[in-house]
Design a protein that fits this description.
heterodimer; A: 15 helices; B: 669 residues; 10 helices; elongated
């Protein structure tokens, strides 16, 4: 009993030390939201104001102010454009993924066809390749199809992402063959089995894949930065660096508010997300 | 838990939607609205304005008598005079004393003249030396006569000698002839020898006889005059003595003549003095009869009085009387003169006159910093109605050459001594294609009161911001509410601007007539604290309250913004030093400045090394504004107060001060 409590204390200590930098970053982000421009200049002159001194560590603002929030929410219409751009682009990507990934995953999980393993391997390979490697190919294709500097330059490549296929496939493979057989005996067709049995049972995997996809696409930087020149199409993720020069104090607030939907969605789908990550990891 | 998070998410998204709508509405309302236009071709009209006075080219100098004491001066500078009007009065008692002195002096001079006359008669007559000289002259003339006679005798002697020589030559020739005849008769040798000897003897005898005869003639003619030669020699020796005596006599004579001349001169001098004294006595008697008053001899205006009451005149002081008005003189600084030239027509406005007077520039004289300009009468309206020294406002309008790019002057922005035009450009932003204000640097080639001719980065297609409803800074998003196109509309607008300007000028004139803007009054309050909100910087300095126009105080070097303060109680103009201390920049137009917990907004930055803020002192009702320039100071408790005048005369200011009698004003610029 005594040994158990000692182990627990050690575990807490390790946890505290391990996540301390993360917590500190979060505290700085929240604190900076309430920093006045004077105080921000005081603590971070070397970083943001072309000064010579390094950033002074800080925890809480001396004189908290809400003017950054009011300025961002009431005086910065550009923020909303990027904010809704992010949501819209992410939603479309998720819808495409929902259709494409679910179908592909069902095929990989439940059908036997020639070259299945090779194609699946290619899917895995594509998932593993970083964006920097894929970018030239994507650029050539998008340019050929005249999709550069349109929202489709961001949506289409992300919509056909292979990561969610891998996750959902793992879930679909978990469905017992007996249920499928029973359905067939009852006269259910292929689409009915997929729609009435596959989707409900694999819902956890689909949701977790969508959540992961949302988090990834909402915070995507590389693709919009490279493929979108028109500022009207920019998502929030590349608006934040651009606002740094003009409105330094507002940038932290924008980052915090940009983080809130991700946090809430994460909390809403936390249960499924854990399942999805586990399933992906097991496979 | 999941439900709560979902609700929070929905609420958050709803909040974002509402905030978005509010933000866009606010943005739509707050975005600056501008009117843009393009550059236009055209000539500028320079309007030169200055105050001046009517003068006359003809002057009369009236001088008082030397050593007469002036009891009272009866005229003032600037006073119009008619013939016969008294100018000043001498002190009668002093004049009478002077008269007595002069009369006594006259008597003395007259006695002295008599004395000099008597001394001059002693030298009349001929001296002994002069007589000796006369004798010597007589003797000399006698000797000369004798010498002439002697010469005649010498001539006689020479003639006789010649006669003797001729006589003996003939005798010798006869003897030789006889001898030759004898030979021819064939004489013997002995006889011939005897004859030769006889001839020789005869010739010798003739020579001897000739010699004796010559000696006899000499003795007869020359020997008799030997005494005369001796007399002449004596006379020569005596002449030297006489000449010495003559020299002495001459010197004495000259001395006597000089002395005589001296007496004569003394007499002449005395006589001149007597004449002068007589004249002075006459003048004194006349002045005493006139009871000491001096009267003007012609019409005119007293332009200068150098005389002083109670002082004895030195005779050099004068009273200058100017005759009829025929010139109008005014000054412009060298920078202002610009393209003005002799021959330009000007209009002169005189208070109280229904019509303006026309004149023409006839002379421009450069002084150290200014140019003195003289106009003479031109046009139909005569200047007879104007008085000497009367003030007038001269206006000269002159058109320049045609410029390719002209913009309204209010479209030009001054920053750090450089000029910019705000130009609207289309730019891609997060909200799509938006109109953004950029500042393009321009160079002002020329300007008048409404327009400026420019060169620089602004081209024909540039949309220049002409009007705006909010303070603009570089990079601001704007909405163009009206675009003034080239051609008629622009010209109409130009006319509109011109009309506005004229209207403003008329209003200013009206205000001026109501004695409001005659003066710009300003007072300084020291040890005030200024704060800047964003960074919380604080500085100490002084506040200058200005009632009137900033431009009247001094010549400003505007770093940015404007100098317009009048009537806007929330606007301030700050010094460049304060701008740097508080904001680290001169580009601070629209920035908030806190003075004693009250917020003000910076409208201009002027080049000054002190920390100073200029505030409008006009914070009164329309009725009170009439006298605001003093009341403003009282309200703000400004410690010092100066007044700077642009158009008012000193009399008008004094009138105004008497009317209000505010003691704060202690200095007049």
């Amino acid at each position: 009993m005594k040994k158990k409590s000692e182990d627990g204390i050690r575990a807490y200590w390790r946890l505290l030390v391990g996540i301390l930098p993360t917590w500190y970053l979060l505290i700085v982000l929240i604190s900076a939201t309430f920093l006045s421009i004077d105080e921000l200049r005081e603590v971070a002159e070397g970083v943001f104001f072309h000064g010579t001194e390094l950033m002074t560590p800080f925890l809480l603002p001396k004189y908290p102010t809400g003017e950054n929030i009011s300025e961002l929410l009431l005086d910065t219409p550009g923020f909303y454009v990027t904010y809704w751009n992010s949501f819209i682009q992410t939603a479309v990507i998720m819808m495409i993924q929902l259709v494409v990934s679910t179908s592909a995953s069902w095929a990989f999980a439940r059908y036997r066809f020639f070259g299945k393993r090779v194609i699946y391997f290619l899917y895995l390979l594509l998932m593993l390749l970083p964006f920097q490697v894929m970018m030239p190919a994507e650029y050539i294709v998008l340019d050929k199809w005249n999709l550069m500097n349109t929202v489709w330059a961001v949506i289409l490549p992300a919509g056909f992402s292979t990561a969610s296929v891998i996750i959902i496939t793992a879930f679909f493979k978990e469905i017992p063959e007996e249920i499928m057989e029973a359905a067939r005996i009852d006269g259910a067709g292929a689409f009915t089995i997929f729609w009435r049995i596959g989707i409900p049972i694999g819902r956890g995997g689909i949701i977790s894949a969508m959540l992961l996809s949302f988090l990834e696409q909402f915070n995507a930087v590389e693709r919009p930065m490279n493929f979108l020149r028109d500022k009207r199409l920019w998502p929030l993720s590349i608006y934040l660096p651009s606002i740094m020069d003009e409105k330094m104090s507002v940038a932290f607030t924008a980052a915090l508010i940009g983080m809130i939907p991700c946090l809430l969605i994460f909390l809403m789908g936390q249960e499924y997300l854990e399942q999805g990550i586990t399933a992906g990891a097991l496979k | 838990m999941k439900k709560i998070v979902t609700r929070v998410f929905v609420c958050f998204m709803g909040l974002m939607v509402i905030a978005n709508i509010v933000c866009r509405i606010k943005d739509s309302y707050m975005i600056p609205k501008v009117v843009v236009g393009r550059t236009t071709k055209g000539a500028l009209t320079h309007v030169y304005e200055s105050n001046g006075i009517f003068t006359s080219s003809e002057h009369t100098y009236i001088q008082p008598q030397c050593n007469w004491k002036i009891e009272k001066i009866l005229v003032q500078e600037g006073q119009m005079l008619e013939e016969g009007m008294p100018l000043w009065k001498y002190e009668l008692e002093q004049l009478q004393e002077l008269l007595q002195e002069k009369q006594e002096a006259l008597q003395k001079y007259q006695i002295q003249v008599k004395r000099e006359n008597m001394a001059g008669t002693y030298y009349v007559g001929v001296s002994e030396e002069e007589r000796a000289l006369q004798q010597l002259e007589q003797a000399m003339s006698q000797v000369v006569c004798e010498q002439q006679w002697l010469l005649e005798e010498v001539e006689k002697y020479e003639k006789k000698i010649k006669e003797i020589d001729d006589k003996y030559e003939k005798k010798e020739a006869l003897a030789k002839q006889n001898y030759n005849i004898s030979r021819m008769d064939e004489l013997t040798d002995t006889e011939k020898a005897l004859l030769d000897t006889a001839l020789q003897v005869e010739l010798n005898e003739l020579k001897e006889a000739k010699k004796q005869e010559k000696e006899t003639a000499y003795q007869e003619i020359i020997g008799q005059n030997e005494s005369l030669f001796q007399a002449i020699q004596e006379m020569d020796s005596q002449e030297l003595g006489y000449q010495n005596a003559m020299r002495e006599a001459d010197a004495q004579k000259q001395q006597e003549q000089q002395e005589k001349l001296g007496h004569e001169l003394n007499i002449e001098e005395l006589q001149i003095d007597i004449i002068k004294l007589t004249r002075e006595i006459e003048q004194l008697q006349e002045m005493i009869e006139a009871e000491g008053y001096v009267y003007a001899t012609e019409n005119g205006m007293v332009s200068k009085i150098e005389l002083e009451e109670g002082h004895i005149s030195s005779g050099t002081e004068k009273l200058i009387l100017e005759k009829a008005v025929d010139r109008f003189q005014f000054e412009l600084s060298k920078d202002e003169v610009g393209q003005l030239a002799v021959g330009d027509v000007c209009m002169i406005t005189v208070e109280g006159k229904a019509r303006d007077f026309q004149g023409m520039i006839t002379c421009m004289k450069e002084e150290e910093d200014t140019v003195e300009i003289t106009c003479e009468e031109a046009g139909d309206i005569s200047w007879d109605g104007c008085r000497l020294n009367q003030q007038g406002l001269v206006k000269i309008k002159k058109k320049t050459e045609e410029y390719y790019a002209c913009v309204p002057i209010h479209a030009i922005l001054c920053k750090n001594g450089e000029y910019y035009c705000r130009v609207v450009t289309w730019q891609d932003t997060l909200l799509g294609k938006e109109q953004i204000v950029e500042e393009e640097r321009v160079v002002i080639v020329d300007q008048d009161s409404a327009y400026a001719a420019i060169t620089g980065n602004v081209h024909e297609e540039s949309d220049i911001v002409l009007e705006y409803d909010k303070v603009l800074t570089r990079g601001d998003r704007v909405r163009v509410v009206r675009e003034i196109q080239e051609g008629k509309e622009y010209n109409d607008t130009k006319t509109e601007y011109a009309q506005v300007k004229v209207k403003q000028a008329v209003q200013e004139e009206m205000i001026t007539k109501n004695t409001r803007n005659f003066f710009t009054c300003f007072g300084e309050m020291e040890n005030c604290s200024f704060a800047e909100k964003s960074f919380g910087r604080e500085q100490q300095g002084s506040i200058v309250y200005v009632a009137g126009e900033m431009q009247n105080i001094k010549e400003w070097n505007v770093k940015s913004g404007t100098l317009e303060l009048e009537g806007d109680e929330k606007s301030v103009i700050i010094s460049s030093n304060l701008a740097m201390e508080l904001y680290q920049s001169y580009d601070v137009i629209g920035q908030e400045l806190v003075i004693d917990e009250d917020s003000y907004y910076v409208r201009g930055v002027v080049d000054e090394k002190e920390n100073r803020v200029y505030l409008s002192a006009v914070t009164f009702s329309q009725e009170e504004q009439k006298y605001c320039f003093t009341k403003g100071m009282v309200k703000h408790n400004a410690e010092l107060c100066w007044i700077s005048m642009k158009q008012a005369s000193l009399q008008q200011l004094q009138f105004q001060l008497e009317k209000n009698s505010y003691p704060e004003i202690d200095m007049i610029r």
